TrEMBL record:
Protein name (record): ATPase, putative
SMART domains, per database record: AAA (SM00382)
Pfam families for the chain: AAA_22
Species annotation: Citrifermentans bemidjiense (strain ATCC BAA-1014 / DSM 16622 / JCM 12645 / Bem) (Geobacter bemidjiensis)
PANTHER family, alphabetized: GENERAL SECRETION PATHWAY PROTEIN A-RELATED (PTHR35894), PHOSPHORIBULOKINASE _ URIDINE KINASE FAMILY (PTHR35894:SF1)
Amino acid sequence: MYKEFYGLAEKPFSKTPDPRFLYMSSGHQEALARLEYAVEESEIALLTGDIGCGKTTISRALMDRMGDRYHFLFVFNPRLTADELLRVIASGLQVESPSLQKDLLLQEITGALYRMHGEGRIPVVVIDEAQLIPDRELFDELRLLTNFQLDDMNLVSVIVMGQPELRGMLASPVYEPFRQRISLNFHLAPLGLEETLEYLDFRIVAAGGEPGLFSPDAVQRIYELSGGVPRRINAVATNALLIGFGRDASWIDASIVEETAAELLS
């Protein structure tokens, strides 16, 4: 297929959040650095960005960077009741058969947090797609997690990630107690034109190929079609490689990307 034709060892624009393919734009670098600081300080951090901007990939890169001292547990579907969320967290903290009674469940979580502290491990709770959280009660439970602390440190850090509408939701006065606990917040913007060029080259090289596979006019058109959102760039670039392979084209120019646009919009 097109991988061999373009000298690639693997697919360069896969949808999976592989940290090896994380292009570190200035925005991604700042987001990762800020999240790293929040985790080290065991605080609550808020990360927002459009669909496909790389929030989940950044969280995976953060996990790889922080090392074995930090125990990450991910909640990918936050459409839960408050008690369900606590049971998911308890399971992530290696509590066997979490209790159905809230008072006992909180005792189990407390015991797990102190046990991990004794082992020199720090739990990190990552809530993805947080704009889907159904009510304030879940945010209250996340806020109360930071009440688990010693004199000089919290016993758990929380990263809340979501789409831009999450910021509007949290602006409501009813979320003021939660907002006051957020020590760090960052919005991840789409890539610019120059960053789109760098992104394409970076992922081609990471997949074993050579930079410059996309012509300047092709990059311009990809940027226009994708708005600089990495997931959309991936979709356009993958289709362009398939069309280019079918044409025996040694590089991807704007005419190939234009054909891709027609297919994506049809």
